[in-house]
Write a structure and sequence with these properties.
By secondary structure, the protein is of the alpha/beta class. It has one domain: 3-Layer(aba) Sandwich (Carbamate kinase), CATH 3.40.1160. It is 41% helix and 27% strand. The chain has 9 helices and 16 strands. Strands 5-8-2-1-11-15-16-14 form an 8-stranded mixed β-sheet, with helices on both faces. Strands 3-4 form a two-stranded antiparallel sheet. The protein has a two-stranded antiparallel sheet with strand order 6-7. Helix 2 crosses helix 4, helix 3 crosses helix 4 and helix 6 packs parallel to helix 8. The two termini are 33 Å apart. The protein binds adenosine-5'-triphosphate and magnesium ion (MG). Adenosine-5'-triphosphate binds next to helix 3, helix 6 and strand 12.
């Protein structure tokens, strides 16, 4: 069905009315974060959402660039259930790449589009207090679990019409800086601020099973897909954190394809949505 421009514009009105003043947390990762054209459309999408009155909080990843930079420095990368094994050398690479490079690039691009973004990390004003994370009892180095989110800091940005762009580190009470999985950080933020929506933008259509897209996923189905080894690697922390945020009161969690231009707008401004919706 071909719609005229005015029909399309009128159709978005109910969504604007529904979401004005609400908070969305966007986990920005995958292809949308590496390809220039997709980076630009992402920056425009979040700016539009902010300008129609939605509070946008971005938590970004950077897995591929961290792995590449580590490789150039002769540091090998290892993942344990989707978590990066992080020794002292790796944590320095993570800090350099995430906070030094990627965070600043995202912020610059959004601000070029007039989105009023401010880049911070989990260390700033103790945004993410963390403790050492053990993966199924195993020590995987300087990987942290967030135990507290400084919502007052986030609230300060939002009430001043600024868009926080967060590099996922956590800081221990002893000052240790931890690498925190970006999916888990996004989920912790969504839970702490009682977000309306949490959207994971990645480099897959959504959750895939047997070669096709799962458009709606329940927790019990996801347990089965995890047990059967259908959901692996980087999808594990997304799934686990998605359901914990839903239980904590976040209304909707979506997994969408960052390789598709404007997927964020399509998800938000259409009834059907795209990708996978995770439901309680
Ligand atoms: N059942 C599944 N459906 C979809 N993707 C899956 C599934 N099982 C494993 N994956 C993997 O999860 C990956 C997405 O997670 P990944 O950590 O690689 O990216 P990201 O989280 O978007 O980016 P970053 O880690 O840099 O923040 C997909 O590219 C895919 O290889
Ligand atoms: Mg990931």
């Amino acid at each position: 069905m071909v719609q005229s421009k005015e029909e399309v514009l009128i159709e978005v009105l109910p969504y604007i009315q529904k979401y004005e003043g609400k908070t969305f947390v966007v986990k920005y990762g995958g292809a949308a974060q590496t390809e220039q054209e997709l980076k630009t459309t992402f920056a425009k999408d979040v700016t539009i959402l902010k300008k129609i009155g939605i509070n946008i909080i971005i938590v970004h990843g950077g897995g591929k660039e961290i792995t590449e930079t580590a490789y150039k420095l002769g540091i090998e990368t290892q993942f344990v259930n989707g978590h990066r094994y992080t020794d002292r050398r790796m944590v320095d690479v993570v800090k350099m790449v995430l906070a030094g490079k990627i965070n600043k690039e995202i912020v610059a691009l959004i601000n070029q589009n007039d989105g009023d973004a401010v880049g911070i990390s989990g260390v700033d004003d103790n945004l993410f207090i963390a403790e050492k994370h053990l993966e199924e009892g195993a020590d995987i180095g300087l990987v942290g679990t967030i135990t507290r989110v400084n919502t007052a800091l986030i609230g300060m940005f939002l009430s001043n019409k600024l868009m926080p762009v967060i590099a996922p580190f956590g800081v221990g009470t002893d000052g240790t800086i931890y690498n925190v999985n970006a999916d888990l950080a996004a989920a912790a933020v969504a839970t702490a601020v009682k977000a309306e929506k949490l959207v994971y933008l990645s480099d897959v259509e959504g959750v895939m099973a047997g070669g096709s897209l799962v458009s709606t996923l329940t927790e019990s189905d996801s347990r089965k897909l995890l047990d059967d080894g259908v959901i692996t690697g980087g999808m594990i922390p997304k799934i686990n954190s998605a359901f914990s945020t839903l239980h904590a009161g976040v209304n909707k969690v979506h997994m969408i394809d960052g390789r598709r231009k404007h997927s964020l707008l399509l998800e938000i401004f259409t009834d059907e949505g795209i990708g996978t919706e995770l439901v309680r």
